[in-house]
Write a structure and sequence with these properties.
There is one protein chain. It contains 10 helices and 2 strands. The protein is mainly α. A two-stranded antiparallel sheet has the order 1-2. α1 crosses α3 and α2 crosses α3. The two termini are about 40 Å apart.
Length: about 190
């Protein structure tokens, strides 16, 4: 979020005196409607502060925790598609920053949990080995991995460690998926 400069603040005050709507000002200044409202409040009301608003919200949530949880659950259920679309677009728009943060997190996690990480890798390797039948085309599988297009993951159509069914590590069970598709699919098998 970019910082407000003096000129933008003056324009905001001028346009609000001229009875512009928050939406019109936001469009003109290339800001969100909420950020325009917040900035206008901070400029015109010395009692208003974002810190106070956050504290009021925190108090409300702590007093009405069940209501808030039910509301959030209902909202997520009824807006699943738009939330998913928003998250996907947010990831695309912020990909370099997110990748940098993820790399830092993974490195720190690995440093703090080397034994756990080694266990996870061993479990995955064992699952792959036990899911590879003797008749599997190992050269074909290797070639499939080697020919993976840039930006794609190799995915098991029927997961090796699925909840309801477990697939085999064979050439016919492999497919290429984009990173986002593969991560959102996870360990699920959909017919």
């Amino acid at each position: 979020m970019k910082k407000w400069d003096k000129e933008e603040e003056e324009l905001l005050l001028l346009w609000m005196k001229q009875a512009w709507s928050y939406s019109e000002v936001a469009l003109e200044l290339d800001r969100t409607k909420q950020s325009v409202k917040n900035k206008y409040r901070t400029l015109t009301n010395s009692e208003y502060s974002i810190a106070k608003m956050v504290e009021r919200n925190r108090q409300y949530v702590s007093k009405n925790i069940e209501h808030v949880k039910n509301y959030q659950k209902q909202y997520k259920t009824s807006n699943k598609g738009s939330i998913s679309d928003y998250n996907r677009q947010y990831y695309i728009d912020n990909k370099p920053y997110i990748k940098e943060q993820q790399a830092k997190y993974r490195k720190q996690y690995y440093q703090n949990n080397k034994n756990k990480y080694a266990g996870y890798v061993a479990k995955r390797r064992a699952a792959k080995l036990s899911a590879t039948p003797k008749w599997a085309d190992l050269e074909g599988i290797k070639e499939f991995y080697d020919n993976k297009p840039e930006g794609y993951h190799v995915d098991h159509i029927v997961p090796l460690q699925g909840e309801k069914v477990c697939g085999l590590h064979i050439l016919e069970n492999l497919q290429y998926l984009t990173a986002i598709e593969n991560m959102s699919k996870g360990n699920k098998f959909e017919i």
